[in-house]
Amino acid sequence: MTAQLSDALPLNNGTELKNRFMLAPLTNLQSGADGVLSDDEYQWLTYRAEGGFGLTMTCAASVQHSGVGFPGQLGAHDDRHIAGLTRLAAGIKAHNSHAVVQLQHSGMRAQPDYCSGVPQCPSDDEETGSKAMSDEQVQALIDDFIAAAERCQKAGFDGVELHGAHGYLLSEFLSPQYNQRDDRYGGNAENRAQILWEVIEGVNKRCGRGFSLGVRLSPERFGQRTAEIRDLAGALLIDERLDYLDMSLWDLTKPAHDEEFEGQSLLEIFTELPRKGVALGAAGKLYSAAQCQSALDQGLDFVMVGRGGILHHDFPDLAIADPEFVMADLPVTREHLRQERLGPPFIDYMASWKGFVAD
């Protein structure tokens, strides 16, 4: 029987989410320049937890100072971040929402001011001026992902997600375009994924299996090969050290671009994979209750809601109560977004998206 949006979602580690809705990790530019949680970011995220999301996830949070990728990015790379993270975890969990930090390093897309103008990358990249990481830097990165997870656990979060999508550093290691290394972290697809597996192993050992762990992947763009990401997803979905896999598909109805998968949607490439307790979800233009339910009907275990969660803090509650619920039409006013507890930097950022905010 197909899962319903209101159904609880059991995770591998024994945790149970109250429904099938997860808030997608959304860049919002709202925290302080040093990565310390701001009131704006606190209000934005806790309001989504209040609105019914079974899992509320932060934006990408940096694991190294040199990996900060955008202004106002939340930090998890220093003990000075723990107080704000503690406040945020408590605020999310007060609404019976599973509290998760997404951990990320921006790699070649790091802000110049944070990386002394020399971004890190698996291999030298002339276009961005990024330099290949030494083995010592790779080991330090793995350690810093693990340390950031431990920091989040200390702050009271229920788990973390590893950001392996969208051309950031873990994604760059997966990419045959950006990873030209000839050591154990480069070469074939298995070696290029080695860094991800070592972070998974390290987080499990350091934080224990009661601390939930997810991974985000994207199967196209950013130098990825769809077949390789499919195979990696297949391995992740049967790994009992993980609780969920979050696929960023941009559009759940989108046909696969890769000729090898002609005639298939991106979604069905992944829903056909066997699972061993690892929940599979995806993000990509889920704007209505019917679209979300259809995603479950097509084989997903949960849905990641982004844009709908920006416009409606209570998107899950509305969708569960009304099968006919549809997201508000765009553009919306700045006042609408203020009422939805977006801070000024976030509203300005959304105004840079064509057709999102009314002039």
Structure description:
The chain is α/β, with parallel strands linked by helices and 359 residues long. Helix 1 (39-50) packs parallel to helix 2 and helix 3 runs parallel beside helix 6. The longest helix is centred in the middle third of the chain and has 20 residues, at 135-154. The protein is 33% helix and 14% strand. 50% of the residues are buried. An 8-stranded parallel sheet has the order 3-12-11-10-9-8-5-4. Strands 1-2 form a two-stranded antiparallel ribbon. It has one domain: TIM Barrel. Strand 10, helix 8 (266-271) and strand 11 form a beta-alpha-beta unit. It has 13 helices and 12 strands.
List keywords for this structure.
359 residues, alpha/beta, TIM Barrel, eight-stranded parallel sheet, two-stranded antiparallel ribbon, 13 helices, 12 strands
Concise overview:
Helices cover 33% and strands 14% of the residues. Helix 1 (39-50) packs parallel to helix 2 (82-93).
SSE layout:
Elements: E1 9-10, E2 16-17, E3 21-23, H1 39-50, E4 55-62, H2 82-93, E5 98-104, E6 120-121, E7 131-132, H3 135-154, E8 159-164, H4 169-174, H5 189-192, H6 194-207, E9 212-217, H7 226-236, E10 244-248, H8 266-271, E11 279-283, H9 289-297, E12 302-305, H10 307-311, H11 315-321, H12 334-339, H13 344-351
Parallel strand pairs: 3-12, 4-5, 5-8, 6-7, 8-9, 9-10, 10-11, 11-12
Antiparallel strand pairs: 1-2
Helix pairs in contact: 1-2, 3-6
